[in-house]
Give the backbone structure.
Amino acid sequence: MPRKLEEYGLDLHGTMILEEYREMLPVFSRMKSVILEQLENCIQRSNLVVTAIEARVKKEDSLAGKLELKGHKYHTLSDVTDVVGARVITFYNDEVDKIAALVDNLFDVDWANSVDKRKLLGKDTFGYMSLHYICRIPKELYFDPKYPQLNEYRFEVQMRTALQHVWANMNHDTGYKSGVEVPPEYIRSLTRLAGILELADDEFSRIRRNLTDYRRKVEVLVRDGSFDEVSLNGDTMRSYLSLDPFRSLNAKIAAINQAEIQQLSAMPYLEPMLEMGLKTLGDVENMRKTCSEKAYQLALHQISGTDLDIIASTLGLQNVCLVYAAETAGEKGVLRFLDCLNGPSKYNAESAARICSQLARIHDM
């Protein structure tokens, strides 16, 4: 059974607002669904990745508590701008402003009542940081004749980072929500924590910017063929493979049997190449140039005389690596390469011996 309105101990004005709240609950529930759906679709279209998108209708007892403290501020329920609230939590600081731009384009923003909490803190203070927009749903975005009030009531959208969200929840739970005055020493601890979280937020954003700059620099170096200046790792390997450096060798191998080429990822070869001592893309490119002909001859021994009509797009790279491993470390090197690529197996030793035997015959030709 719902509580009787008079049980909240509000004055007549507050009781009337609470009564209106009960009457409008179906509207608020529909608003919440529409807001959440619109935000999710908009953010998905933008290709931004966020940690959470939430929406809620303020609970009756929470609204009653607000009216008890600040009821004189509200003439009607429509003056309470957070009865329906949404929250978007991002990973990085700069994404908060990107989300804000999306919200501005999506809804009608009441700028006079919106607030950027980030700008309210002084240069030497730390605390609650969040961007709050007060909005309405425009009719051109969504209109339901059954709920015309849906476009009239305002709602709040909070935007902040995950670390700012941690601070907000901790401050809420340990501060005014308890109804007990917090001793100064605890306030100081919370403020120190806010400073640490703000620093961490800034550092995460800085690291991401630096990584983005690094990846762009790598792409330019790879595109210009400056392979010796680029370390071999996951990002640089992808940039190198985007040039399709083994296309000519694979086409030559496929022509042996007029085979089709099946596209497969070559990223599993990164770890074996690092294991072989390759440190830069220059090392990989030199290996490709010096070992490609023997890699083709090895393919002749592997597939000529067979009816194989499909080859993997990684075959050229694989054979180049096998030739390189054999020439630098012999049969043991080939075995280590196969173990690293496919996992240890008793069959790898047989394969390594057979490959080295084939390469020896190629060398004698």
In short: Residues 20 and 305 are 85 Å apart (CA to CA).
